[in-house]
Amino acid sequence: MRALARLAAAVLVVASVAGLAADAPPDRALATARAVMGEHPEIWIGASIIRGKHAVVVTGHAASTPPSLSAPGAPAEARLADVADSARRTVARVWGPVDAVILAPATDEQAEVLASPSGVTGLAALADVDHVILAPSGFGRLSPTGRRVVLAHELTHVATGAAISGDMPAWLVEGFADYVGYLGSDLTARAVAAELAAEVRSGTLPAELPGREAFRPGASRLPQAYEEAWLACRYVADRYGERALVALYRAARRHGIATALVETLGTDLAELTAAWRGYLRHELA
Which one of 115, 139, 184, 264 is most buried, counting C-beta atoms within 10 A? Predict the structure, then answer.
């Protein structure tokens, strides 16, 4: 209780440029932010909480929020809240509402503590059960489009409960998050999947959809694994429709991927894999 009291005294609450009117996020998002901050109050001494229309952003003291996030006359925190709001709207349109709680600690070391035991090495952001943690150095290197893509990807994980869905196929979890993340980006398949495109043009096609080991930090083909997963979900959306892709994900959570493929798409994993390989050749070769 004393730690929470110190936290409350140390935190500066900042109003968004949009104001704290009817468009402010629900109280539970703010409550979630405060609860998570209470787990490591020493990290959030002097922190700011800013409420966007649908997002709550917490920035650590002297947080290395990229200067390019700032608009003239607007604090960096408000600009980050705008980006989070945009990402949250994309997720809500595809999947449904999600509380967008974004933690932006001051240092990568603090991000590692917040993300423990997973860690954030090599990442721009990481989704936990009910919030997203930014890694300052990784997130700071992203373009404005990249930041929105990453936040939409991670908020999709929050919305779908990816952190507690250990038995879901990794290609569907990561591919669906990337599918939502890249919506509206106007980026081509060859631009997003540059590493995989180079392999396909050389005549090498993946034999199977990427498994969980392919997404381990340091995996030799980690970029290609994400690209393969994204294009698998993009194929499903192109061939069957976005609603079918969402239905596939929801059914896989309930019944497993084999049953979900039959129920929602009328196919099996072997047929999907063959069709996906042909899609890769068409889109990337």
Answer: 139
Which of 279, 278, 275, 283 is CA-nearest to residue 188?
283
Residues 266-280 have pLDDT tens digits of 999 999 999 999 999
Q: Which SS3 state, helix, strand or coil, does residue 111 take? A: helix
- Sign (positive or negative) of CA dihedral 17, 21, 26, 32: positive
Angle at 29 between CA 71 and CA 120, to 5 degrees: 70
Shared domain check, 262 and 238 = yes
Phi, psi of 84 (to 5 degrees): -65, -40
Cα gap 285→282, rounded to integer Å: 6
pLDDT, tens only, 28-48: 889 999 999 999 999 999 999
Comparing CA positions, the residue from 153, 30, 132 lying closest to residue 87 is 153
Tell me the C-alpha distance between 152 and 180, whole Å: 7
What does DSSP say about strands 55-59 and 48-51: parallel, antiparallel, or unpaired?
antiparallel
Number of structural domains found in the chain: 2
Nearest to 112 by CA among 215, 43, 38: 43
Q: What is the pTM of this model?
A: 0.88
The answer to whether residues 84 and 55 touch, using CB atoms and an 8 Å cutoff, is: yes
Cβ neighbours of residue 191 closer than 8 Å, sequence gap 6 or more: none
Residues of the domain holding 134? 2-164
Integer-rounded Cα radius of gyration of the chain: 20
Among 112, 138, 164, residue at a domain's last position: 164
Domain boundary among 164, 189, 223: 164
